[in-house]
Structures are given as structure tokens and as C-alpha cells.
Write a structure and sequence with these properties.
Helices cover 38% and strands 23% of the residues. The N terminus is likely disordered. The radius of gyration is 19 Å and the shape is globular. The relative contact order is 0.17. Helix 5 packs across helix 6. The protein folds into two domains: 166 residues, P-loop containing nucleotide triphosphate hydrolases (Rossmann fold), CATH 3.40.50.300; 62 residues, no CATH class. With 261 residues, it is of the alpha/beta class. The termini are far apart.
């Protein structure tokens, strides 16, 4: 049977508002991420990008508005439920299990692990073992994809900042996502690994996975994203191709306002 690609957006935010202590941090923000699109979300410090990201991921609940994943309303669902529905995220500061091996770190991200069930572990040990072998094979494939295979038996604590970003990509992919939210994957990465990370994100997107990328590195945004959204003061300021929006006077102004004197 031929699968039919969804006609609507892979991820949509509709008039989101988030209020903290009477202050609207997100003010009626909307966006759409198309199926298979790679969309950049940029803006100066304090624009509300991280709050918006956390609303989409399910870490925060909006004060009002709606979030749709593949056309399904997920506004009230937890981050775990959204992950099970095909939405996965990375963290600006990766959080690997430092004492576990690099391979084990990737395997922990697999969904629907039978070994987590006491009944399955006791009465279906062969199925549990077979699933673990399959997860290990997939985790090794992903470590090869992110060029970390040579470190699979090492504890995650030995990884550099850039290698932790690559491990984070592998862990995200282990969830078998259809939509990925990437939170500043270039932050703290040395130039030697930056090109590798950019290439792997491009390959992930080329496989059909929709990607929303928050990033301060404008070179990375320009290389990866055909379309960007600019946020300022918790709302949409501009939208379009990177080379177009970064020349707009209002965009230049909000970035200059956020710079130290």
C-alpha cells in the first residue's frame, strides 16, 4: 500500500500565548512547519525563542492557543506523549548519562522498550532479548551516521562538547521521529565538528524528517534553512529567506537593541 503524505503542516502553532507572573512572554505567536521542511527560528536574546521551543516540545503548557502535530491537537499532551507521536527534541546543553556508554545512551532513547515491563521481562525474556539486539543494531547504525562508532564503548563523560551534540542527534533519531526540534546544535561546537553537524542535519532533513532549528549561528542558518522566522518581544517580526529577512531594517534594529553598549 502506498502511503499518502500529510497535506497539512507537520507541526503548527496557532496564536500561542504564554504568561509568567502577569507578563506575556509569548504573544499570539503562530508558525507552520511543512512536511519535510527545514525551518529556522531566530531572534535576539530575550525574543522568546526558548519559551516557544518549550511550548512546542511540551515542556511548558501554553496559557492559550493550540499546537498541532501532523494535524492532531497535542496542546495538552506531555513531552513523552508528543515523542511517542513522532515529535522529538534536542537540548541546547546535551544531557547524556555520563557513566553509561555512548552506545547505551543511544539505546535508552528507543521507544516501547519491552524490558521496562516486569511482566515482559519475566514471561517474555526471548522477546525482550531480541528487541534489545535490534535496538543495539539500530544504535550502532546511528553512531556510525554521526561518526561516533569508535567511541561506542566509552562512557559519555569522555565526549567533547561537539561530540555530545552529535550523540544528541543520534539519541533523537533513535526515537524514530517525523518532526525534530533542534535547540542551538552549533552552540559550543568547535569549527572542526561544525561542518559535520551541518551535514548530518541536512541529511536528516533530506530523509523526509521535518526540522525546526533554533540557532544563533547565522552562517549555519543560511546554509541549512530556505525559510526563517524572526521573533522579537514574543511575537512574529519577519518571515522569509535568510538573506532577505536579515537585510530588513526592523530585524537589524532588534538585533542591535539586544547588543551590549
Amino acid at each position: 500500500m502506498t502511503s499518502v503524505a500529510p497535506s497539512g503542516p507537520a507541526l503548527a502553532a496557532q496564536s500561542l500565548v504564554k504568561t509568567f507572573g502577569g507578563l506575556d512572554v509569548i504573544r499570539g505567536m503562530s508558525l507552520e512547519l511543512g512536511p519535510g521542511e527545514l525551518l529556522g527560528l531566530i531572534g535576539p536574546n530575550g525574543a522568546g525563542k526558548t519559551t516557544m521551543f518549550n511550548l512546542l516540545a511540551g515542556t511548558l503548557a501554553p496559557s492559550s492557543g493550540a499546537i498541532l502535530l501532523q494535524g492532531r491537537d497535542v496542546t495538552t499532551l506531555s513531552q513523552e506523549r508528543r515523542c511517542a507521536g513522532g515529535l522529538s527534541r534536542s537540548f541546547q546543553i546535551p544531557r547524556p548519562f555520563a557513566r553509561m556508554s555512548v552506545l547505551e545512551n543511544v539505546m535508552t532513547s528507543a521507544q516501547g522498550q519491552l524490558g521496562e515491563s516486569v511482566i515482559s521481562a519475566l514471561f517474555r525474556p526471548n522477546r525482550v532479548a531480541a528487541q534489545e539486539r535490534a535496538h543495539a543494531r539500530r544504535a550502532r547504525e546511528l553512531l556510525d551516521f554521526v561518526s561516533l562508532s569508535h567511541l561506542e564503548d566509552q562512557p559519555a563523560s569522555v565526549l567533547s562538547g561537539g561530540q555530545r551534540k552529535l550523540l544528541e542527534l543520534a539519541r533523537v533519531l533513535m526515537t524514530e521521529p517525523r518532526v525534530i526540534l533542534l535547540d542551538e546544535p552549533a552552540a559550543g561546537v568547535n569549527p572542526a565538528l561544525l561542518d559535520l553537524i551541518i551535514d548530518r542535519i541536512a541529511q536528516i532533513n533530506a530523509s523526509g524528517i521535518a526540522v525546526l532549528l533554533i540557532e544563533h549561528n547565522m552562517e549555519m542558518i543560511a546554509r541549512l534553512c530556505p525559510r526563517v522566522i524572526v521573533m522579537a518581544a514574543g511575537q512574529l517580526l519577519a518571515e522569509g529567506a535568510p538573506e532577505e529577512v536579515t537585510r530588513r531594517a526592523d530585524v537589524v534594529d532588534v538585533y542591535l537593541e539586544g547588543m551590549p553598549a
